[in-house]
């Protein structure tokens, strides 16, 4: 397991410099709307008293995209962020993030062992990262440890689609055959973007991921698929 995890981390190190551009090109910018939706729903489902002093951890933060959205949406919603931290196992990704967001704290670590105190965060988020964690259940349990009671876990992820419709099959063809080609051109690393559709195929359905969240102490309160079920947003509350 550890060897596979290290291979995935090394892959992200290699594509870090072109990661933001590749994401924008491949998603046509649609992922921005998904991230904004995630932030607004998380704020909406937190206890009112938490909104004046939020503590947020973004796991698998990559180049810091989700952290930028937390900050932007907090300002729009008049929510006060007391602290925010980005955590990622890829030093290459964190190097880019630190240049983009010099005032944010970033820590290199894996999702299965977060250097954070128990019940210390109002929100833990992971955008397009849980699929890349080999020991996924261990990571979910770690998120449950870190989130406060009645706090929120946000997951954005590409999920496996069972019994796909015609539109979903067409989207699957795009994901499997066209996205790796585009990502490969932008990043000059076709193998890394060939990994994307393969990892989606090996991942869970939305229903199964919600079951795993319940097993570690979260109550799913919002699950919504976007763009022909390519991406799913999960909002869960810590019991």
Give a verbal description of the structure:
The protein has 239 residues and is α/β, with parallel strands linked by helices. The protein is built from nine helices and seven strands, in the order H-H-H-E-H-E-H-E-E-H-E-H-H-H-E-E. Strands 3-2-1-4-5-7-6 form a seven-stranded mixed sheet, with helices on both faces. Helix 5 links the parallel strand 2 and strand 3. The model has no long low-confidence stretch (mean pLDDT 88).
Give the tags:
single chain; 239 residues; alpha/beta; 9 helices; 7 strands; 49% helix; 23% strand; globular
Question: How do you describe this structure in short?
Answer:
The protein has 239 residues and is an alpha/beta fold. It has nine helices and seven strands; from the N terminus they run H-H-H-E-H-E-H-E-E-H-E-H-H-H-E-E. It is 49% helix and 23% strand.
Contiguous low-pLDDT stretches (5 residues minimum) are none
Shape: globular
On the 0 to 100 scale, the average pLDDT is 88
Order of neighbouring strands in the sheet with most strands? 3-2-1-4-5-7-6
List the helices and strands and how they pair.
Elements: H1 2-15, H2 19-27, H3 30-44, E1 54-59, H4 65-76, E2 81-88, H5 91-100, E3 105-108, E4 121-127, H6 136-146, E5 147-158, H7 166-187, H8 190-202, H9 206-215, E6 218-226, E7 231-238
Parallel strand pairs: 1-2, 1-4, 2-3, 4-5
Antiparallel strand pairs: 5-7, 6-7
